[in-house]
UniProtKB/TrEMBL annotation:
<dbReference type="InterPro" id="IPR039361">
    <property type="entry name" value="Cyclin"/>
</dbReference>
<comment type="similarity">
    <text>Belongs to the cyclin family. Cyclin AB subfamily.</text>
</comment>
<feature type="domain" description="Cyclin-like">
    <location>
        <begin position="329"/>
        <end position="412"/>
    </location>
</feature>
<dbReference type="GO" id="GO:0000082">
    <property type="term" value="P:G1/S transition of mitotic cell cycle"/>
</dbReference>
<protein>
    <recommendedName>
        <fullName>Cyclin N-terminal domain-containing protein</fullName>
    </recommendedName>
</protein>
<dbReference type="InterPro" id="IPR046965">
    <property type="entry name" value="Cyclin_A/B-like"/>
</dbReference>
<dbReference type="GO" id="GO:0051301">
    <property type="term" value="P:cell division"/>
</dbReference>
<dbReference type="GO" id="GO:0005634">
    <property type="term" value="C:nucleus"/>
</dbReference>
<dbReference type="InterPro" id="IPR004367">
    <property type="entry name" value="Cyclin_C-dom"/>
</dbReference>
<feature type="domain" description="Cyclin-like">
    <location>
        <begin position="232"/>
        <end position="316"/>
    </location>
</feature>
<dbReference type="GO" id="GO:0000307">
    <property type="term" value="C:cyclin-dependent protein kinase holoenzyme complex"/>
</dbReference>
<dbReference type="InterPro" id="IPR036915">
    <property type="entry name" value="Cyclin-like_sf"/>
</dbReference>
<dbReference type="Pfam" id="PF02984">
    <property type="entry name" value="Cyclin_C"/>
</dbReference>
<dbReference type="InterPro" id="IPR006671">
    <property type="entry name" value="Cyclin_N"/>
</dbReference>
<dbReference type="InterPro" id="IPR013763">
    <property type="entry name" value="Cyclin-like_dom"/>
</dbReference>
<keyword id="KW-0195">Cyclin</keyword>
<dbReference type="GO" id="GO:0016538">
    <property type="term" value="F:cyclin-dependent protein serine/threonine kinase regulator activity"/>
</dbReference>
Length: 448
């Protein structure tokens, strides 16, 4: 009996040491409490990965010095569960440091936990600073949250931007399904990447430019009829020098702009018109007529120095702004939107818009409105159905009801082209090069 007493004392000492509160190992940046099998809370059932040992909220004690050394930035620790051999070696190392001999029940419990941990190799341990802040104040429980690996969540701003982008793409696809694209991406000369920006500039410039329908009020010696005679003569000069079509329309635009800003004498009208043609050809054409040729075509009415001086005066008055939206630039775009390869239709549209150049009444409408009306009248004259398409409405930015009034004026000019005194444009488009569109009989009235 006496020999068994030391054995009983040793066993009771072992039980006392086992039932004692397990000490806590405090590291520099992590808190590693010893696991306990006595807790029944959910935090005690967490699976250990060999590096971080989960403990109950009541067992976790945080040192104030450790908290002060923690980084303010949110810390995310991703740890993949190690093999069983590494976990056993590291856990044995921890228990060796404590100089504690685990009970058999602890060893069996640890084996069960190791088996469960080996299944969850893809489980991540994420430590959130936002969730750890209130727990550090209360000094309660661990702050480790286990969840499956997932993609990074987008921010609220990114989700809004992606949603708006999807909506924009959806509306664009819907509009493209209804209306075809009029630009040829294979033709680099059409600058399809910039054509929308270019025409947006023209629309803005046209909106900022006031209508010149009343500029004759500042002129004392010239009249609208004299203006028409001058432009009719400039069309003939333009044909003689074989200049480009856009040069003619820019000439008329620069002439009207200058006359709306400066009052001139009657004997200066021809000089101003020739100077406007010189500036337009320098800006638009491949070459420009010589000053001496322009002086000679005016029957030596002016000198070379007078024309050069007028060129300087006009540039200063126009503030060197020569890139004005003319009917020609809008006509090119609208003809593409009409999607007609009929050369007779194109020549007829240009014929109608050229008839408007000599008429002072046409200045009551914007260049884009004149072009849209000319295309509408040309389609009606050639009996093209429908006379106004949704694609034309998109690019011309006018509905059929908007252009009816201007179209009636264009039709009036068309009906009077054969009987008027200003017949240069009529004779020009009566040639075979222009499909003789001037000989086409005009409509009696627009269709209802």
């Amino acid at each position: 009996m006496r020999k068994s007493l030391p054995v009983l004392r040793q066993a009771s000492g072992l039980e006392a040491s086992a039932t004692a509160k397990p000490p806590i190992v405090t590291a520099r940046r992590s808190i590693v409490p010893k696991p306990s099998n006595l807790s029944t809370r959910p935090w005690g059932n967490r699976v250990s990965d060999g590096f971080i040992v989960m403990g109950s909220r009541a067992q976790t004690k945080v040192d104030g010095g450790v908290l002060s050394r923690k980084s303010i930035k949110p810390a995310v620790k991703t740890m993949i569960t190690a093999p069983n051999t590494q976990r056993n070696s590291k856990s044995n190392h921890l228990f060796t440091m404590k100089k504690l001999k685990p009970r058999p029940a602890d060893l069996s419990k640890r084996k069960q936990q190791d088996n469960k941990a080996s299944v969850s190799k893809n489980i991540l341990s994420v430590v959130s600073n936002e969730e750890s802040a209130p727990e550090e104040e209360n000094i309660s429980g661990g702050t480790i949250i286990a969840r499956r690996k997932s993609d990074r969540r987008n921010s609220f701003t990114c989700s809004i931007m992606s949603r708006s982008k999807l909506l924009k793409e959806g509306s664009k696809v819907k509009s493209e399904e209804i209306l075809p694209n009029i630009d040829d991406d294979r033709n680099h000369l059409e600058v399809c990447d910039y054509v929308d920006d270019i025409y947006q500039y023209y629309w803005v410039m046209e909106g900022q430019s006031p209508l010149l329908k009343n500029y004759m009020g500042i002129q004392k010696e010239i009249t609208p009829q004299m203006r028409g005679i001058l432009i009719n003569w400039l069309v003939e000069v333009h044909l003689k020098f074989d200049l480009m079509q856009e040069t003619l329309f820019l000439t008329a635009t620069l002439l009207d702009r200058y006359l709306s800003l400066e009052s001139i004498k009657k004997n200066e009208m021809q000089l101003v018109g020739l100077t406007a043609l010189l500036l337009a050809s320098k800006y638009e054409d491949f070459w420009h007529p010589r000053v001496t040729d322009l002086v000679s075509i005016s029957a030596e009415s002016y000198t070379r120095d007078q024309m050069l001086q007028m060129e300087k005066t006009m540039l200063k008055k126009l503030k060197f702004r020569l890139n004005e939206p003319t009917p020609y630039v809008f006509m090119l775009r609208f003809l593409k939107a009409a999607q007609s390869n009929h050369m007779k239709f194109e020549h007829l549209a240009f014929y109608l818009i050229e008839l408007c150049l000599v008429e002072y009444e046409a200045l009551s409408y914007k260049p884009s409105m004149l072009c849209a009306s000319a295309i509408y009248v040309a389609r009606c004259t050639l009996q093209m159905e429908p006379p106004w398409t949704p694609l034309l409405s998109k690019h011309a930015r006018y509905e059929e009801s908007h252009i009816r009034s201007c179209a009636k004026m264009v039709l009036k000019f068309h009906r009077a082209a054969k009987t008027t005194m200003l017949k240069v444009s009529h004779e020009k488009y009566a040639k075979l090069d222009y499909c003789r569109v001037a000989n086409i009989k005009p409509l009696d009235r627009l269709p209802m």
